[in-house]
């Protein structure tokens, strides 16, 4: 089962990387852009009996390792396309 | 207009960060996970007259700055919810 986990910074947490990119875009002439925020996207395959079980496991992984929940949120998207394509 | 740009590594490009995370997940007891790949997700607001124009601008930004097209792909998702919510 394919899982896509988005790990954005929480609202209100300063994003210097995003600010730098925004500034660089401005220097390149893209002045119509604002509020640039940069997060992680983690894609993985997980072996689980059901979507519910996979989601439970992935939540644990996010809490323990994938996201720093002090400053980051996480959002889990499950896609069983790969499973049905077997 | 809100834009979400996903920048994953191209297939075949080695992902040491993903490998490290996969290994760490294994150490934590999550042995049912494979093929971990880590990419960027960029969220920004863009001022454009139409979705088509915004997509054109964003494609340019990806080619020039946001993605390293030698090793990374990019995917642009546009969401005009913010526009209609004004």
Order of helices and strands of chain A: EHEHEH
For the largest interface, the chains and their residue counts are: A-B, 33 and 33 residues
Shape of chain A: elongated
How many structural domains of chain A? 1
CATH architecture term of chain A: 2-Layer Sandwich
Question: What is the distance, rounded to the nearest whole angstrom, between the alpha carbons of the first and last residues of chain A?
Answer: 10 Å
- Cα gyration radius of chain A (Å): 17 Å
Q: Using the coordinates shown, work out and report the CATH topology of chain A.
A: Mth169, Chain: A
Unreliable runs of chain A: 82-86
Strand content of chain A: 25-35%
The count of β-strands of chain A is: 3
Helix/strand/pairing category of chain A: alpha+beta
Describe the main β-sheet of chain A briefly.
Answer: 3 strands, antiparallel
- Mean pLDDT of chain A, as a whole number? 92
**CATH superfamily descriptor of chain A:** Phosphoribosylformylglycinamidine synthase subunit PurS
């Amino acid at each position: 089962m394919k899982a896509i986990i988005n790990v954005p910074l929480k609202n209100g947490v300063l994003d210097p990387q995003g600010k730098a990119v925004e500034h660089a875009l401005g220097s390149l002439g893209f002045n119509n852009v604002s509020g640039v925020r940069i997060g992680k996207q983690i894609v993985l395959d997980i072996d689980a009996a059901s979507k519910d079980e996979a989601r439970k496991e992935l939540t644990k992984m996010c809490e323990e390792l994938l996201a720093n929940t002090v400053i980051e949120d996480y959002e889990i998207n499950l896609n069983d396309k790969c499973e049905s394509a077997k």
